[in-house]
Amino acid sequence: MGKVVMNASMSIDGFIADVDDQPGPLFEWLLGGDVPLDESGILKVSQASYDYVRPYWDQVGVTIAGRHVFDMTDGWDGTPPSGVEHVVVVSHRSAPEGWDPEAPFHFVDSIEAAVALAQQLAGDRVVEVAAGNVGGQAFAAGLVDEVRMDVAPVVLGTGKRYFGSVEAKHLLEDPEVVQGNRVLHLRYQVRR
For residue range 44-57, what is the model confidence (pLDDT) as tens digits? Predict the structure, then answer.
């Protein structure tokens, strides 16, 4: 079974978006380099960021997101982002009316069900959990194996927290650190 990784870009004060769900300059690093990160040609990063991010993206088989992110992105128009094969959406509501039942999106009502289904779908590939409320739930439940943060040099002050509403203490191992242009990539194994 593949590992479960919580991942997102964040500000140095721990936010993944401002109070209006806008990322602001958190993704500058995805546009400020000269190495194409994907086939679109839009995302261009430094060589260091490419060497860190691209191999990870190639391992991700399933993404877990909350209904809020699903609704904000209009369900990615039925196509999972970044070449991911499936998206598992944590929601107490079913798929939107008129949603294509053949689209590789799966709606479940708990984080435990989401991780179990995602691991089944991913096989030995990585299950990525979006940071924020859903990621915080998975982290607090002990379902996350690794935490990845792309830390942008910005202070947002308030907004949506990387770990959502996690309130208990959790220990992580020492980080792997990669310096990119306008970003510090951090990777922590969760201490068990």
Answer: 999 999 999 999 99
